[in-house]
Amino acid sequence: MLSVYETTDRPKEYNSSKLESLLPIGKDESKLICYLQSSLNNEIEAGNTYAPKFPFNLSEFKNYFLVGDVFIIINSRKNLSIDFSNNLENAILGTFYIKPNFPGRYSHICNGGFITSNIYRNQGIGRIMALAFIKITPLLCYKASMFNLVFSNNTFSIRLWRSLGFQEIGRILNAGYLIKKKKKRQNK
């Protein structure tokens, strides 16, 4: 039995040639991968959107986030050098992956994971990624999408996907152990 952290088969019709020329990363992607790993680990540590309890080491990150197809939203309004790897925080608006949700006969159903860069939150980047997801998934031969865990406190995500026609297929009460934000104490 495969876990969600391992490779599953892509849809049998999958052909990556349709996407290869869109966003080639380049020869040295180590800074980019470390930046993406840090972004995901920050979300994990916040404890409100991703299921893992602990941050991923590099190998775990690659097996979780980089197993499928990964897309990066680049800030085209900034004057970025051709080698944007020295300015990743300003260059990357967000990132998302698309990968099979299930193995075998169900590999035509995909899952996606999304991270909006902290400095670009509340600026419509999530919607840009969601619309890109909707356009890209058929190109990758997926027939359906299913997001396994969208916690009820993630109101931005819920509102976004509902506005794009997605439906909830169920709710599981107390499904996750979310980290509650501590209230600041006032000195008296």
Short structural summary:
The protein has 188 residues and is of the alpha+beta class.
Describe this structure in words.
The protein has 188 residues and is of the alpha+beta class. It has one domain: Aminopeptidase (3-Layer(aba) Sandwich). It contains five helices and four strands, in the order ααβαββαβα. The protein has a four-stranded mixed β-sheet. Residues 1-6 and 21-27 have low confidence and may be disordered.
Outline, from the CA principal axes? globular
Distance between the termini: 57 Å
Side by side, the strands of the main sheet go 1-2-3-4
Q: Classify the helix fraction into a percent range.
A: 25-40%
Instruction: Please mark out the parts with pLDDT under 50 across 5 or more consecutive residues, or reply none.
Output: 1-6, 21-27
The tally of helices reads: 5
The average pLDDT value, as a whole number, equals: 82
- Which structural class is indicated by helix and strand composition? alpha+beta
Q: Into how many domains do the coordinates divide? A: 1
Name the CATH class.
Alpha Beta
SSE pattern: HHEHEEHEH
At the third CATH level, what is the topology name? Answer: Aminopeptidase
Strand content: 5-15%
* CATH A-level architecture: 3-Layer(aba) Sandwich
Under CATH, the homologous superfamily reads Gcn5-related N-acetyltransferase (GNAT)
Biggest pleated sheet: 4 strands, mixed
Radius of gyration: 17 Å
The number of distinct β-strands equals 4
GO molecular function: acyltransferase activity, transferring groups other than amino-acyl groups
GO cellular component, one term: nucleus
Protein name: N-acetyltransferase domain-containing protein
InterPro entries: Acyl_CoA_acyltransferase, GNAT_dom, Mito_N-acetyltransferase
